[in-house]
């Protein structure tokens, strides 16, 4: 079969138009490679991209691990993971970071007892899935039911919103993502905290880290399974070689420094899928 | 030519028209009088087939009218034009378009949907308007016209149908005396010049007397009088209107000459 | 009187003239009508094509999938139907919050709209010269979509019902202000003048002279607004302002496994909207009819 | 009137007034009580605490000003100059703002006597009038400073990070880099970015002056560079606005076209069969009750993100609303005109065309145009959910919370757009229906 | 006590009241006559300060009325009650409340908005209504009353203000002769019993003659007559009304005794 256009979905985390701009180079390469028009879509949240992949209206996206699991759980045949981003140190993982305001006197999860805790987006791996499983294991009696260990557990909607909410004191602590490399006072080398610091939104002196997760696998670049085989192959090769052909573009697509991408399969995410299934159901 | 036989109309318990029988052998100008609720409108609406008769029959030139359905019924309606007390025009459309509505039955549905009428029809409409003295109003919206002018547009629409019969349901009841006269004159002239039958509901005795060849009186749905204007004495009128001895004809009059002497007569009444 | 020219039709020349000018008018009307129709069809067709093209999924491809999502939700909800009543109870507080947002913002907005409408109605205004100022002010309040104010306020005040309430109240004040002032424009000024002649203050004139006249219409408009505001507050919840919209967004983001929650929220939201819709249309009819009588 | 009667009337009046008083005081009392409940239910006392007025100040000042970042990588000593710290706003190599001077010692003049000196060997000095000289030395991750004792609240210092915020600008020093932010009023680079040859040229110069870019005519080149401005993205914004209006237009008109035939089926006069009527009405109630919000969600699966999804959500909801309004209008049509048309022997379609349509057209047009305006506003919100139009740009710009000048720009555009649509629809209403109706 | 000096009101080009000068030294009942558009209403509205004068001044007991602003102006209005042709009551409110509106100026805005009138005021309102013979109507809505009753409510409201002057702008123009007489009698009685000054615009000569101590005639904004009723001959009246020789006083009369002979006189006119 033939395709008449190729549609790339982009996940939240930055200004919609900024994201579109960073992906434009990838779209251009795609058009060149496939010979069909390439369109970029930036839905308002994770769920928008997931729905697009499930409904067959989006052909390719870079998902978070949990978002991939969500897609997989709703329809195992919908998408297949092909590539994963490689960090500067060669790893393909990152961390979920729990943090709080220093002046609130909170320095650890124990201090959070009876306080308000915030997740990001329910479809986020580091902003919800992993911490919701690992935090209860980190201490005696910790649960994620609102009103039990924490006075309340809320969803802020996204990483940026969590950071701002903690910084404002709307919530006492929250989780977001970071590569876990570099220095805390810079907001690590990359991640949501770093972006907030760069934007002048927060002063890392005022924040403390209260928890850090195990390594979380980076989310995969996925292609819709129903795409023609040659299209899938061409796109896989394109993403694989992107760093070699155009590092600048890779920086934009992967939202920061990386060593490009390497192939990945569903096996990498089976534990995440299981975790999500256990946590959310479905 | 027109034969109405024991025509009856019931609304639930109420018998609005009760076994009305009228025979008309040649085109005449006929006035129907009777007080409000006597059944005049109902009778005319059955004639035009706007409403169905409960019992009885209407035949016209041997054709059974009450039995017509669908296209045949609409064809009959196109041959039997009707004029209403409230004019029943389309106020937002221009005068000529309103007149052209008289041709709807003859033209294809599709063309008329887009207001596409043959040019010859448009010319004829304007001629008819001219005949009624309101050709200058042709491009105006119907709602912009005075009552008398609107009624003349309604007559023009009726003429546009080129009907054998014109039914008029109290055509002058919402008009002032001056306009009432113009409209009645027009109807009479059409009757005389074109030889069309005209049946008009009228609520004033003197109008009926003055314009009609034959007067039919109705009371409570029944026909209680049928004769020439001359036979319509004050005593008969009292019967028709069910009025007591204090009945004054002038009380229902709108004609101008009556009006002129009105003041005087009223003064007399007070004396 | 020209009306009396029944027996004397116009001369042949003038009738030709009337005919020609009428035909010209018909031509012109057909031309304009056709042109407008063509432009409209063109706009619709090309607009549809642009929208279709800029959408991820095409219209014709997606049409047969419309039922997919509701089917999934309903299937799961049906499977777990035993839990539904419990979930409805669980989300009831969120519903109350949504209704509260709508109610408070309607009250505040209507009060502000009332004052603004009186200040910007000719004949009633406290400062007649400032009428254009107040009108402009209302126009701007009306033009700002609730989401703009809500998002900005969320940034300053943090999430929760208050930003949504303020946002909706501001919009409501503008919208009701305009409608109120249209009603007030038709108010009878005689009672106002009567009160003025006794030395009443502006507030007294408005409260005693104008309000009794316009109250039924005002109330009817305010009810309609309340109905609209319930929807608005649900939508604002979706972008972070609390209430039922927030819960709906989360349960939908979770996807399968929590679709029973989504279904419960659907039911609450749908039920509430229909309930208040019916309620307000009944009372509105009664108010305006009672007024006409 | 006898004295006894008069007393009776008086006591009646007293009773009347106590009733009125009860009502006049009771109603506001109930409302007041409700507000008190809301005061606590919405946690307003807590809100006063939570409210972050710094954010409000940031928002207010950022929306009409911009900052230029001067960054030194403390490791390599590399300098970067960029408006808003964005790559797109970076000064081309070899250029820098004129308030930065020096080569070995780079001096940044923040104005008002505040100077920042970036010295070799990872040293930084900040000179603040009426406070003194702050010296900082980065060593690995450590920062050593000459700051001692109680610090004013505009200085935040730890061994890893120093932040100084003054009205003139902001300085942050960490082990890895030193950043200076200098604030200026206005929307910098609104017209042209640094890489455009037209940057820094006035309008007069561009319009009437010599050719600036040898390859292009001035006007064509300037318009194209402005249109493709990477910072402000005027082209994308224009598309987004267009998409929003498109959603409103298509949704409203489509709904009207769909609702018109359906509304006949819901009007008593035209649909004598009770079942059809009730079914159509329930359908209207259903699509209206489900609400555009939920429709967007349902449709997103089938059609994916984009303007079409938003259009359809508006279309479906408004079909219900229009259906209700239209069928009410149809129930109130004047029978006389229909009868007049019927009496000529017109066919049923002709009866509708001339008896009914002319009557309801004014009501329809007025409603459609009114909804067109209000749907422009709805489309902004729906776009934010389905991913299309100016609404998405606005929400994302607000959520990332840094480009407040862009937020301000979008808000101005949105308000302008709605006001234009409002007056347009008002003008059309007057034109098509006439003032009298 | 009341001094009106070259009082002028212009609406654009139009001079509605042109340098009117009136001196009143003691509380009198004064009638102002003149045909429609003569400026009578405008003059009264300026007196009550419902509209501002363009030029000239009004002084009352030495106080400059035209210069008053804000609260002082409202205080003057409370001392100078006004009665209107269309009654200008609040139709949806009950009669007592309408009468109590006369005390608005004396009570705080807040209290009046919540209907917190002192009981003594309520009782006084009812006594005033009783004096005007309509105490039974007290709890009814004003709109439920007949025109004559409504005008008496308006007078009651005026009395509630306990004013020095009562201005009445064609108080009987929308009343039938019977009610007109009741209302004029009431005004006269108030003038005589309470000693309040009454200035009434009247459009009928005979009413002015019958009830007033002093009559002022206006024409085209100017005062063209100022004298006792006795001085108001038919010739003078012709001047005021600008009428020709066919001027008949009765044509503008509404008094009852005139009406009785009206029919006869009219019949005579037709002869
Ligand atoms: N659609 C209807 N349903 C029920 N009763 C009707 C209907 N139309 C007419 N009637 C009744 O039938 C009777 C005759 O009515 P009709 O209108 O024919 O009288 P009319 O002589 O034309 O009176 P008018 O001078 O008032 O027009 C009246 O009692 C009326 O109430
Ligand atoms: N608000 C206004 N604006 C413009 N012209 C006005 C205004 N009010 C009154 N006039 C004009 O001033 C003139 C005097 O009007 P006024 O109402 O005082 O006359 P009047 O003697 O009371 O007549 P009437 O018997 O009709 O009440 C009239 O020509 C009127 O048209
Ligand atoms: Mg009739
Ligand atoms: Mg007057």
UniProtKB/TrEMBL annotation, chains B, E:
Pfam families recorded: ABC_tran
Keyword ATP-binding (UniProt): yes
EC number per UniProt: 3.6.3.28
Domain of life: Bacteria
Matching InterPro entries: AAA+_ATPase, ABC_transporter-like_ATP-bd, ABC_transporter-like_CS, ABC_transpr_PhnC, MetN_ABC_transporter-like, P-loop_NTPase
Top-level EC class: hydrolase
PROSITE patterns referenced in this protein's UniProt entry, alphabetically: ABC_TRANSPORTER_1, ABC_TRANSPORTER_2
Assigned keywords, A-Z: ATP-binding, Cell inner membrane, Cell membrane, Hydrolase, Membrane, Nucleotide-binding, Translocase, Transport
Cellular component per GO, a single term: membrane
One GO molecular-function entry: ATP hydrolysis activity
NCBIfam families (UniProt xref): ABC_phnC (TIGR02315)
Protein name in UniProt: Phosphonate ABC transporter ATP-binding protein
Automatic annotation (TrEMBL), chain C:
Compartments, as annotated in UniProt: Cell membrane
Domain ABC transmembrane type-1: 95-280
InterPro entries listed in its UniProt record: MetI-like, MetI-like_sf, PhnE/PtxC
Transmembrane spans: 31-51, 99-119, 258-276
PROSITE patterns per UniProt: ABC_TM1
UniProt KW keywords: Cell membrane, Membrane, Transmembrane, Transmembrane helix, Transport
One Pfam short name: BPD_transp_1
Membrane topology recorded in Swiss-Prot or TrEMBL: Multi-pass membrane protein
SUPFAM superfamilies attached to this UniProt entry: MetI-like
Cellular component terms (Gene Ontology): plasma membrane
Broad class of the protein's primary localization: membrane
GO molecular function, one term: ABC-type phosphonate transporter activity
Family according to the record: Belongs to the binding-protein-dependent transport system permease family.
Protein name (database record): Phosphonate ABC transporter, permease protein PhnE
Gene: phnE
From TrEMBL, chain D:
One MF term in the entry's GO annotations: ABC-type phosphonate transporter activity
TM annotation in the entry: 21-42, 245-267, 352-372, 378-395, 407-428
Gene3D superfamilies found in the cross-reference section: MetI-like
Cellular component, GO annotation: plasma membrane
Keywords attached to this entry: Membrane, Transmembrane, Transmembrane helix, Transport
InterPro entries in the cross-refs: MetI-like (IPR000515), MetI-like_sf (IPR035906), PhnE/PtxC (IPR005769)
All residue ranges annotated as the ABC transmembrane type-1 domain in the record: 241-425
Coiled-coil region(s): none
Pfam families referenced in this protein's UniProt entry, alphabetically: BPD_transp_1 (PF00528)
PANTHER family for the chain: PHOSPHONATES TRANSPORT SYSTEM PERMEASE PROTEIN
Family to which the UniProt record says this protein belongs: Belongs to the binding-protein-dependent transport system permease family.
Protein name from the UniProt record: Phosphonate ABC transporter, permease protein PhnE
Organism: Thalassococcus profundi
């Amino acid at each position: 079969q033939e395709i008449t256009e190729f549609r790339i979905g982009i996940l939240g985390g930055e200004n919609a138009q900024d994201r579109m701009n960073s992906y434009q180079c990838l779209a251009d390469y795609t058009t060149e490679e496939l010979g069909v028009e390439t369109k970029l879509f930036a839905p308002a949240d994770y769920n928008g991209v997931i729905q697009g992949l499930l409904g067959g209206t989006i052909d390719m996206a870079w998902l978070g691990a949990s978002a991939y699991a969500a897609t997989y759980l709703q329809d195992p045949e919908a998408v297949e993971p092909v590539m994963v981003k490689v960090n500067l140190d060669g790893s393909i993982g990152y961390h979920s970071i729990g943090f709080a305001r220093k002046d609130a006197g909170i320095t650890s999860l124990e201090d959070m007892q009876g306080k308000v805790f915030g997740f990001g987006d329910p479809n986020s791996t580091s902003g919800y899935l992993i911490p919701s499983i690992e935090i209860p294991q980190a201490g005696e009696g910790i649960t994620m039911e609102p009103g039990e260990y924490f006075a309340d557990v809320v969803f802020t909607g996204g990483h940026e919103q969590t950071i701002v909410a903690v910084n404002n004191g709307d919530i006492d602590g929250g989780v977001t993502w970071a590569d876990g490399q570099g220095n805390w006072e810079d907001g690590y080398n990359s991640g949501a905290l770093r972006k907030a610091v760069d934007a002048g939104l927060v002063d890392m002196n005022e924040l403390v880290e209260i928890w850090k997760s195990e390594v979380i696998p980076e989310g995969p670049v996925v292609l819709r399974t129903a795409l023609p085989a040659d299209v899938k192959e061409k796109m896989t090769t394109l993403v694989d070689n992107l760093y070699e052909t155009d590092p600048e573009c890779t920086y934009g697509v992967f939202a920061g420094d990386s060593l490009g991408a390497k192939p990945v399969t569903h096996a990498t995410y089976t534990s995440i899928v299981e975790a999500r299934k256990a946590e959310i159901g479905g | 030519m027109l034969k109405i036989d024991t025509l009856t109309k019931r609304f639930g318990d109420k018998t609005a028209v009760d076994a009305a029988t009228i025979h008309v052998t040649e085109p005449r100008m006929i006035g129907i009088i009777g007080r409000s609720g006597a059944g005049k409108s109902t009778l005319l609406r059955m004639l035009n087939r706007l409403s169905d008769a409960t019992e009885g029959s209407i035949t016209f030139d041997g054709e059974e009218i009450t039995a017509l359905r669908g296209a045949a019924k609409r064809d009959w309606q196109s041959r039997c034009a009707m004029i209403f007390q409230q004019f029943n025009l389309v106020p937002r459309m221009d005068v000529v378009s309103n007149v052209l509505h008289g041709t709807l039955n003859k033209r294809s549905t599709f063309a008329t949907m887009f207001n596409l009428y043959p040019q010859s029809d448009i010319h004829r409409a304007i001629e008819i308007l001219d005949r009624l003295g309101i050709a200058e109003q042709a491009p105006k919206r119907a709602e912009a016209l005075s009552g008398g002018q609107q009624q003349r547009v309604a007559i023009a629409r009726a003429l546009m149908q080129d009907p054998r019969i014109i039914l008029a349901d109290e055509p002058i009841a919402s008009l002032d005396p001056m306009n009432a006269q113009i409209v009645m004159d027009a109807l009479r002239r059409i009757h005389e010049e074109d030889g069309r039958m005209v049946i008009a509901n009228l609520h004033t005795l003197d109008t009926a007397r003055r314009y009609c060849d034959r007067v039919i009186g109705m009371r409570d749905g029944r026909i209680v009088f049928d004769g020439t204007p001359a036979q319509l004495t004050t005593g008969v009128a009292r019967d028709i209107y069910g009025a007591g001895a204090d009945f004054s004809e002038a009380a229902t009059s709108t004609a101008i000459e009556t009006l002129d002497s009105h003041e005087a007569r009223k003064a007399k009444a007070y004396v | 009187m020209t009306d009396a020219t029944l027996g004397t039709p116009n001369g042949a020349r003038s009738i030709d003239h009337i005919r020609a000018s009428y035909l010209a008018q018909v031509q012109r009307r057909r031309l304009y009508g056709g042109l407008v129709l063509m432009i409209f069809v063109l706009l619709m067709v090309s607009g549809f094509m642009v929208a279709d093209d800029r959408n991820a999924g095409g219209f014709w491809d997606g049409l047969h999938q419309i039922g997919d999502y509701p089917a999934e939700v309903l299937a799961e909800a049906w499977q777990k139907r035993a839990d539904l009543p419990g979930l409805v109870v669980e989300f009831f507080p969120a519903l109350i919050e949504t209704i509260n947002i709508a109610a408070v913002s309607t009250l505040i907005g209507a009060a502000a709209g009332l004052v603004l409408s009186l200040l910007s109605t000719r004949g009633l205004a406290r400062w007649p010269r400032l009428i254009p100022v107040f009108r402009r002010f209302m126009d701007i309040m009306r033009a700002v979509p609730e989401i703009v104010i809500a998002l900005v306020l969320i940034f300053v005040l943090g999430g929760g019902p208050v930003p949504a309430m303020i946002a909706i109240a501001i919009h409501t004040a503008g919208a009701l202000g305009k409608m109120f002032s249209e009603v007030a424009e038709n108010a009878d000024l005689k009672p106002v003048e009567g009160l003025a002649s006794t030395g009443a203050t502006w507030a007294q004139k408005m409260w005693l002279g104008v309000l009794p006249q316009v109250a039924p219409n005002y109330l009817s408009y305010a009810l309609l607004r309340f109905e609209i505001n319930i929807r608005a507050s649900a939508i604002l919840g979706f972008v972070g302002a609390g209430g039922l919209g927030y819960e709906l967004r989360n349960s939908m983001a979770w996807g399968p496994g929590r679709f029973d929650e989504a279904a419960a929220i659907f039911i609450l939201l749908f039920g509430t909207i229909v309930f208040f819709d019916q309620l307000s249309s009944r009372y509105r009819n009664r108010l305006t009819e009672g007024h006409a009588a | 009137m006898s004295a006894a009667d008069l007393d009776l009337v008086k006591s009646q009046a007293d009773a009347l007034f106590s009733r009125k008083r009860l009502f006049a005081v009771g109603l506001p009392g109930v409302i007041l009580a409700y507000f008190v409940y809301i005061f606590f239910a919405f946690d307003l006392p807590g809100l006063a605490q939570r409210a972050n007025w710094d954010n409000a100040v940031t928002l207010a000042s950022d929306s009409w000003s911009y900052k230029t970042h001067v960054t030194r990588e403390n490791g390599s000593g590399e300098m970067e100059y960029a408006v808003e710290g964005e790559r797109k706003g970076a000064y081309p190599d070899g250029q820098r703002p004129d308030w930065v001077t020096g080569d070995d010692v780079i001096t940044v003049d923040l104005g008002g006597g505040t100077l920042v000196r970036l010295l070799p060997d990872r040293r930084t000095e900040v000179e603040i009038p009426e406070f003194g000289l702050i010296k900082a030395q980065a060593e690995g991750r450590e920062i050593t400073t000459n700051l001692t004792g109680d610090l004013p609240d505009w200085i935040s210092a730890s061994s890893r990070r120093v932040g100084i915020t003054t009205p003139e600008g902001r300085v942050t020093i960490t082990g890895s880099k030193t950043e200076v932010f200098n604030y200026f009023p206005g929307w910098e680079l609104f017209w042209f970015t640094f890489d455009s040859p037209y940057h820094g040229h006035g309008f007069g110069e561009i319009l009437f002056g010599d050719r600036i870019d040898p390859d292009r005519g001035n006007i064509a080149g300037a318009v194209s560079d402005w249109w493709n401005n990477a910072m402000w993205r005027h082209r994308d914004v224009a598309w987004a606005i267009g998409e929003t209006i498109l959603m409103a237009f298509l949704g409203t008109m489509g709904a009207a076209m769909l609702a018109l035939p359906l509304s006949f089926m819901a009007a008593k006069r035209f649909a004598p069969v009770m079942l059809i009527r009730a079914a159509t009405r329930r359908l209207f109630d259903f699509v209206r009750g489900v609400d555009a919000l939920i429709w967007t969600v349902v449709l997103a699966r089938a059609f994916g993100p984009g303007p079409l999804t938003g259009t359809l959500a508006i279309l479906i909801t408004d079909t219900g609303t229009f259906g209700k309004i239209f069928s009410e209008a149809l129930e109130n049509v004047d029978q006389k005109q229909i009868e007049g048309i019927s009496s000529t022997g017109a066919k049923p379609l002709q009866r509708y065309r001339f008896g009914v349509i002319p009557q309801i057209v004014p009501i329809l047009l007025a409603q459609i145009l009114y909804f067109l305006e209000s749907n422009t506003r709805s489309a902004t919100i729906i776009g934010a959910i389905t991913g299309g139009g100016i609404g998405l740009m606005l929400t994302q710009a607000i959520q990332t919370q840094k480009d407040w000048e862009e937020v301000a720009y979008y808000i101005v555009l949105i308000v302008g757009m709605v006001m234009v649509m409002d007056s347009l629809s008002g003008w059309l209403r007057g034109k098509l229906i006439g003032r009298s109706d």
